[in-house]
């Protein structure tokens, strides 16, 4: 069979299925779905497999070990009546072993195949008799369970890595239980959690494989960031080259000075045996320094000094240029990167923010980005410059005297060792330092926001202790970095100093030799030049060592910045979205299943239809999924199964800005920005005229309390609306939603903190405003929903009742019970008052 | 924090008795009979509460009190998870019961404990771990992201690999020094 090898290979992946089925036409008790199965499988066979003999099971995908098959036959799961099988990686106690679940037409059983003997792990179960089948998540693993005899029985256990294949299997088992046919394609679909090429787990469902997509390293990505500035960078680099050359000149000049100018004059010169005039000067220049007069020497000294001054001046000019240009590029890149981060953060899904703390994200945008400026700085006059200097000076040294140059290089192995040591032992300490800073930022934001809670529970002492421990961690992290640096740097300094002493020793000996005219000697000027270059040589080398220090910080900062930029937790965008310029406001949910964790559904198969212009209420216990329902209607999250339709269009296909323009949302916890009241109301429509703002406020029953403030609508609000009461904040957020004139208005507990009287007022206003717009009101206070056209009652992620207030009362279900309890409560309250 | 909590339980607080009246149901050998029933599932009979079948045990403080405060739960006919009550101290129950409850806990938790870290490689924003766990030498891949390595108690870490499997280091400080250094190189938060 041509496909067999491939199938065995697939078998190595944990999400492999083994299918078996028979096409024996003589089997009498063939069930109807089996016939359906045949038909759908026929197509598959037609492609790859040769014509099959009757009564011989065909393996479609994956394979079961023969020994397991034999055991399966022993419990009545023979080839003919097997539907499919799935592999798992553990037994019910969580011990690792190879387990196969074999599902037949009416029974299923799990077998272990690891040991020499094959054992039945669980079952066989008469699974057709089960009322339900489900995957049950426990901590770190899952169970496939059958509801038999009014309780869930564990059939097989698997680690989270196998969730996908068992998730698909359960869907099929549920279909079969409902009498629907098996859909083998759904079982065989390529994995969405692993790369189908290399098997690497994907960072998200259907995300691109990081290995196959060849994500580049932090450095090369940073260089890409600099691409738009290549011209300036080219200028920077050539300036730098010029600078290095300028740096090489002064020691050569001093060498000349020492060897030829600052030396005793020869005897005939002292005797005044020289021609005067310019002609004579030129002649002496050609003849060599031995013939120079003092006057000549003074002149040359001045010329050389002038050259030194010029070299130094040009060098500093180059430095000014480099500094300015690199700062220009650096600040631009960091600005662009910050904007990019912020833009990316704006587009990330709500889910991302559930998983990352604000303090952590804040420090990335604020501090980590600065490292990228450092990168430009390094390019301009850090790493590259030092490298060029080292290379340039090294070459010159070798030209001047090879043996002496070798001595200069002696300390370099120590520098290498030092650098390695640095990477191994000092490098990780920087990570902790950063972490301590970010933890402290998180602690402080939490503390500053929750200051009232701290005071209310009089936990100042504990907060003090917590802060002190965080400050201690920071101190310890910084101390650890600085202590090690304080030891490391002087030791490296000593090594370099030793290098200088070596030159005195080796060079001094050579100078003495030179003075006595021996072979291999050098002049004093050469030695001086050596010292001049060495001062410039070890500096860059130690800088290069420190470079690793900088790289460390840069790499960790880069990791954190690119981590945000790479996070693909964005809702997929339709390539050609549907534009809805006008919306009627019809809402429909079709068999929606959704969970914040895909394997733990919150909304379970919810279907509902809301006609345009209706006022609909949603009630239910806390945690029953009301806000979650709103979240999927607004498409803060994508549903896992089913679809949400607005005006008959799937929300995933609607252009995001249209979607949000037509939906007005008042959240359970109103959020107000640090701005004036007017700006907050006009948040969704910044160009709204003051009259419209006031009308909206009036409708939300907010106008009067705003009017009483000295600054009226211009009153500045503090962080998250501090300075207003909870109910006032809610009313402002209602006004904000109303001002945008949305077709769909969603009020999630929007009036829960408002007194009954104001609520009545808002209700009246809403009644007027809601004409012609679809309103979805979530409320715990049922009295607010009396006039609703329709009320949906949610319980545990399902719609359990629906109808008008009267209908639901008559039904005597959950709703009527809730109403009874609430009237009871208000009677109690009333009795209290009276 | 933990010492804090223990202190609080040891000092009697006047309100505690009042709270207890409306608190969780305490399961003790006096009011509860726990046994293994059909399909070798845990069954539980509570005085005045009836018989519960297909019961699962869940730890309420899996890190700070791993052998106390065990909640017994079942799935009701509407598929909702319900609590029967809480066993505060398993040791007061007879051995057979302790065995059965522990067996149920074994099914509830699946976490591999890391004893050694041989190497961590960082590639494509992923960390490739080579470790020794209670089950032997293993390799796994996790995303190098802050939300994939969470605190476990005061000094430990839980690593969630790319497939959401849980790997636990109960105490990072107790890893061999070289392993710890490799670990905090990457998981430094
Ligand atoms: N971001 C989230 N991540 C994971 N689970 C969540 C998240 N938000 C809510 N949940 C869970 O989803 C369930 C439904 O929550 P939801 O907010 O929809 O309830 P609700 O009906 O609005 O309750 P309430 O009346 O208290 O506002 C709850 O069990 C909750 O714990
Ligand atoms: Mg809610």
Q: Note the main sheet of chain A.
A: 6 strands, antiparallel
Instruction: Let me know the average pLDDT of chain B.
Output: 84
Distance between the termini of chain A: 87 Å
CATH architecture of the largest domain in chain A: 3-Layer(aba) Sandwich
**From the helix content, strand content and strand pairing of chain B, which structural class follows?**
alpha+beta
The CATH H-level homologous superfamily of the largest domain in chain A: P-loop containing nucleotide triphosphate hydrolases
Number of separate domains of chain A: 3
Number of strand elements of chain A:
19
Strand content of chain A: 5-15%
Shape designation of chain B = elongated
Give the overall average pLDDT of chain A: 78
Which class of the largest domain in chain A in CATH terms? Alpha Beta
What does this molecule look like?
- The complex is a heterodimer of chains A (834) and B (189).
- Chain A folds into three domains: 2-188, Pleckstrin-homology domain (PH domain)/Phosphotyrosine-binding domain (PTB) (PH-domain like); 222-401 and 522-565, ABC transporter type 1, transmembrane domain (ABC transporter transmembrane region fold), CATH 1.20.1560.10; 587-833, Rossmann fold (3-Layer(aba) Sandwich), CATH 3.40.50.300.
- Helices cover 54% and strands 14% of the residues of chain A.
- Chain A is built from 28 helices and 19 strands.
- In chain A, the strands form four sheets. Chain A has a six-stranded antiparallel sheet, sandwiched between helices.
- In chain A, a hairpin with a 2-residue loop joins strand 8 (141-148) and strand 9.
- Chain A is elongated, with a radius of gyration of 40 Å.
- Chain A starts with a helix and ends with a helix.
- Mean pLDDT of chain A is 78; it is low at 1-61.
- Chain B has 189 residues and is an alpha+beta fold.
- Chain B folds into two domains: 2-108, no CATH class; 111-186, Immunoglobulin-like, CATH 2.60.40.
- Chain B has a six-stranded mixed sheet. Chain B has a six-stranded mixed sheet with strand order 9-8-7-12-11-10.
- The model of chain B is unreliable at 1-8 (pLDDT under 50).
- The chains are: A alpha+beta (834), B alpha+beta (189).
- The interface between A and B is large, with 52 and 42 residues.
- The complex binds adenosine-5'-triphosphate (ATP) and magnesium ion (MG).
